[in-house]
Amino acid sequence: MIPFELEQPRTLKAALKLLDAGDPSVRVFGGGTALMLMMKAGVFQPTRLISLRGVEARYAKVKKDKDGSLHIGALITLSALGRAAAVKKAAPVIIETLQTLSNVRVRNVATLGGHLAHADPHMDLPPVLIALDAQVVTAAAAGSRTLAVADLLTGYYETALADNELISEIIVPSQQGRRSAYIKLTTRTADDWPTLGVAVSLITDGNTVEDARIVVSAATEKPVRLQTAEAALRGASITDAVLARVGDAAAAEAELVGDARGSAAYKRELLRVHAGRAVRKALAA
Asked: On the chain, which terminus has fewer CB atoms closer than 10 Å, C or N?
């Protein structure tokens, strides 16, 4: 590694002042799990790193609001998120997803904000958060803004964040009346990078689906909602034939990419089968 400066601000405001929108070699990190790998591989050579580990503790906590929404600090570690009682009660699909997200060593260090800002399409939580209609709150010297997680992730390792903008909070709206699930398919161990990820969130009236969100990831350049597949579910009573139509719609709609974990054609067949299975899993939640 080449030498670099390390800044350790004590407040988020101080950290923002250290950012330089005109210098792409300056990086902020929470846990640094992805950043350190990139530096060791020589993919990224920073001139300055800004550690957020010392900023206000409130950015690493979970709060449940009166309206049932969860306000999650961006610096909470994935392990702490997985132990949060408020999250387990309000959005148990997040807890379940974290059980096979990488490994405990990574989860003990990696932060939720970093997980999202890294924008790796193989990450497990982004499709789940999109299915839950979650938002991120950002911070910058010019002020804050709120945008949907779906709008944050713009492409392969790309986000809508400006170079001098940070994620400060993640908001998960009340999931009252919703049932959600995530299916992760891997080619090796359960905690490996997914070959395909499918997140589903439903509102039902008896056996009839009133609203559906279906998100595919890992096999795509970014997590994507499958609106044609969602439309095939809305107003329908769940039968094997309906789920088959959902799977066909998902496979036809998604723009899939091949990689070392499988060809695009292989992933398309996985999606065709597992879109319906994810719906079944959500119904059983």
From this structure: N
CATH numbers and ranges of domains, the chain: 5-51 (3.30.43), 57-172 (3.30.465.10), 178-283 (3.30.390.50)
Higher pLDDT, 26 or 116: 116
**Residues 221, 225, 226: CA angle, nearest 5 degrees:** 105
Alpha-carbon Rg of the chain, whole angstroms? 19
Least confident of 2-6, 52-56, 74-78, 268-272: 2-6
CA distance 104 to 272: 31
Q: 2: how many CB neighbours lie within 10 A of its CB? A: 8
Beta strands of 53-207 (E only): which ranges?
62-64, 70-73, 135-140, 145-148, 153-155, 158-159, 165-172, 178-185, 196-205
- Other Cβ atoms closer than 10 A to 260: 7
Of 282, 272, 99, 81, nearest to 190 by C-alpha is 99
Which of helix, strand or coil describes residue 283? helix
3-state secondary structure of 233: helix
Other beta carbons within 10 Å of 67 = 8
pTM here is: 0.95
DSSP E strands in 80-151: the ranges are: 135-140, 145-148
pLDDT at 145: 97
